[in-house]
Amino acid sequence: MRTTADGDVPARLYLAIGRLSRSLRRAGSTGMGHGSISALSTLAGCGTLRLGDLAAKEGVAAPTMSRIVAGLVDAGYLRREPDPADRRAWLVTATEEGERVVSSVRSTRMQELSRRLDSLPDPDRDLLIRCIPVLEALLADNPEG
Fold first, then answer.
1. Where is the HTH marR-type domain (predicted)?
2. Domain assignments of the chain as residue spans, ordered by start
């Protein structure tokens, strides 16, 4: 763990990233929980997935994902159908309405982040922009990134 005159770097970075992420999630709030939006976003980006594969991608247990999917199906954001290759498994796909919700949430969150970036002094914004490849390199070590 590295500490500097400014304090514990990993702890400060973790806290700042976590708080920024939570703040942006609130900005794009739809009334759905984070797990629902995350699962819907994954399906909008990946296309059709088996329920078990979606649970694995989201890092949650299959029963938890089953409850999330049931709520999203009831809301009209997902479509669920039996897997023709294995009738015991389910395939889930985002509906057009589900994709619209994901697009709207993403747009709102990007607008909020853009507003915050625009409020920074130019030198700070330029420094942050130069740090993006460094943050991306941190993700490269994580295959789930």
1. 10-137
2. 32-140
